[in-house]
Specification:
It contains 12 helices and 16 strands. By secondary structure, it is α/β, with parallel strands linked by helices. It has 2 domains: about 200 residues, Alpha-Beta Complex (Quinone Oxidoreductase, Chain A, domain 1), CATH 3.90.180; about 130 residues, NAD(P)-binding Rossmann-like Domain (Rossmann fold, 3-Layer(aba) Sandwich), CATH 3.40.50.720. It is globular, with a radius of gyration of 20 Å. The structure holds zinc ion (2 copies).
């Protein structure tokens, strides 16, 4: 089969490699749709994981099943996350499977290929049948959406709240979509950069979109909240400059959700008086539990979150490098990669 391999920073090659074989409890998927992710772009720039296969957001059809696979048959269209917790480590037994110490061991990477092998713990916990009403491209959003749902579960949201989202990339837009899917959605203000992304935030329902190249996000948020600040601030930008202003956006008794990972382990300065006397909670979030994956599945299958508009375009696998060249230049948000273009069902 054909598989994309990251050879060194900014150099991708397509290699002919042996087809993956499913072991007991495992399946091999024929990839219909794989998505680029900000983590992939970082790996592309830095050569992380090179040389090796990559791509961790994908959906497809079960091509082969190993022994003892229950609930799935060859030919089933499925959606899946690329990891599952072990269920046995300390954090798993505390119900924090998103932080499982053994996540990396069974990770299904290699979605930028014609076929990909999915391990038994994933098949059992985080793989689901995909209904025909959901395209493979939408289904491939299961993984990033699960991370978003996980974060959302750790901050209280009230219908009267003002929520500020920093960053209009895929994650910021998925947070917006999830908030809008609530029965009584809060008011959402989004700040970010790039005309296309800001426009997307507007069309996906943000009450106010702030171009942080043109305006001071802190000033606008204060003005829109009668000087009180927001009840929830979500950082989906992962830049030291967004963390630096985050406390100035947060009101008394608020929650700050830290989703975006800053490059490197950087120190941050924070006003201890505000954190303490204004009772501001800093909440980190990482990865997802199977429960978050199931909620993300329900949001997609019920079409309560429609991620399709986030995709900038689609490329066949052999033109994968064009998608990353564009992302590297700051163009577009997320691309769909289609390994078998002649059969692509379209979006
Ligand atoms: Zn991802
Ligand atoms: Zn574990």
């Amino acid at each position: 089969m054909l598989s994309a391999v990251l050879v060194e920073p900014r150099r991708l090659e397509l290699e002919e490699v042996p087809d993956p074989e499913p072991g007991p409890g495992e399946v091999v998927l024929r990839v219909h749709s794989a998505l680029t992710c900000a983590a992939d772009l970082r790996a592309y720039r830095l050569g992380q994981g090179a040389p090796g296969p990559w791509g961790h957001e994908f959906a497809g059809q079960i091509w082969r099943t190993g022994a003892d696979v229950r609930g799935f048959r060859e030919g089933d269209a499925v959606m899946t996350a690329h990891t599952a917790p072990c269920g046995e480590c300390l954090l798993c037994t505390r119900g924090q499977g998103n932080l499982c110490e053994n996540l990396e061991a069974g990770m299904a990477v290699g979605g930028f290929a014609e076929f990909v092998r999915v391990g038994a713990p994933i098949v059992q916990q985080n793989m689901f049948l995909k209904p025909a009403s959901l395209s493979h491209a939408e289904a491939a959003f299961l993984e990033p959406l699960a991370s978003v749902v996980q974060g959302l579960g750790s901050v209280p949201i009230d219908p009267d709240d003002t929520v500020v989202i920093l960053g209009c990339g895929t994650i910021g837009l998925l947070y917006l979509a999830c908030l809008k899917a609530l029965e009584q959605p809060p008011r959402v203000l989004m700040a970010g950069r790039g005309t296309e992304r800001l426009e997307l935030a507007r069309t996906m329902g943000a009450e106010l979109v702030i171009d942080d190249w043109q305006e001071s996000v802190v000033e606008v948020v204060r003005e829109r909240t009668a000087g009180l600040g927001a009840q929830v601030v979500m950082d989906c930008a992962g830049q030291p400059e967004s963390w630096a202003q985050i406390l100035d956006l947060a009101g008394r008794g608020s929650h700050i959700l830290l989703f975006g990972g800053c490059p490197g382990a950087l120190p941050v300065d924070m006003d201890t008086t505000r954190l303490h006397y204004d009772q501001i909670a800093l909440v980190g979030t990482s990865h997802f539990t199977p429960r978050a994956v199931r909620s993300a599945r329900d949001l997609l299958v019920g079409h309560r979150v429609r991620p399709g508009p986030i995709l900038t375009g689609s490329y066949p696998l052999r033109h994968l490098s064009q998608a990353f060249d564009r992302l590297d230049r700051g163009e577009g948000t997320k691309f769909e990669i289609v390994p078998h273009p002649t059969e692509a069902p379209g979006r």
